[in-house]
Write a structure and sequence with these properties.
Blueprint (H helix, E strand, L loop, with lengths): L7 E8 L5 E4 L4 E3 L3 E4 L3 E7 L6 E8 L5 E11 L2 E6 L2 E8 L1
Antiparallel strand pairs: 1-2, 1-3, 1-9, 3-4, 4-5, 5-6, 6-7, 7-8, 8-9
Length: 97
């Protein structure tokens, strides 16, 4: 993978149903070596998507009584911006901090 997000933090906003970017969440996403987290809200891991340059597959887990898992893809469109998709739809927009 040409771009590695390891040791970076990103401000992240959700896309609405019309594809507009909403407000940025106060808790950044932090990427480590094959692991990621959003503060203490969730933790997860990621792997490169071999057939897509600058793309990773992410699996996250929100712990606690209401534990849920989530999966999505992140595509780094520039070294300072990403677009995440989930089930083929726009999911999140990130800008590097």
């Amino acid at each position: 993978m040409p771009f590695s997000p390891a040791n970076t933090k990103w401000s992240v906003a959700a896309f609405d149903d019309n594809g507009a970017i909403g407000s940025f969440h106060p808790t950044p996403w932090e990427f480590h070596q094959e692991a990621m987290n959003a503060g203490t809200l969730w933790v997860g891991g990621y792997t490169a998507i071999p057939e897509v340059s600058n793309g990773i597959r992410c699996e996250n887990l929100k712990a606690g009584a209401g534990a849920v898992s989530d999966s999505f893809e992140v595509f780094f469109v520039t070294p300072t911006r990403f677009i995440a998709t989930k089930s083929g739809a726009l999911y999140r927009f990130g800008k590097k901090l």
